[in-house]
Amino acid sequence: MRFKRRMIVFEAADLDAESGFWAGLLDGTVHKGDRWHNIWVDGDWQLGIQLAPHHVPPSWPDDASSQQIHLDFYLEDLEAAHARVLELGGRVLKAADDPTVPSGFRVYADPAGHPFCLCWLPSPI
Prior knowledge:
Helix content is 18%, strand content 34%. The protein is α/β, with parallel strands linked by helices. The chain has a four-stranded mixed sheet with strand order 1-4-3-2, with helices on one face. A four-stranded mixed sheet has the order 5-8-7-6, with helices on one face. It starts with 7 loop residues before the first strand and ends in a 5-residue tail after the last strand.
């Protein structure tokens, strides 16, 4: 079986806040519909935001709730990405235990409460 497209879709009560956050973070553009926004990056459809007026975000990292789903982004400049996430309306859910270790992650939530991680790895030798 050959898929023509693979898509991640987030539900959100506020389409503009959610799609604006992800387009800003991924350096993409938003194509708006009434109940669905598409995030395009480098000329390709990368992410969908579906209207869900009664969306309830997970409460993770509270152990009483699961993550449901989350994304990991590996990057070189953690502090620049951290500042961008906050500027776009994201929030920190769990700070890194020790940001000086060779690899790790920080957990954030987008405006609709979906968790994602900004991660780092040691530089390749």
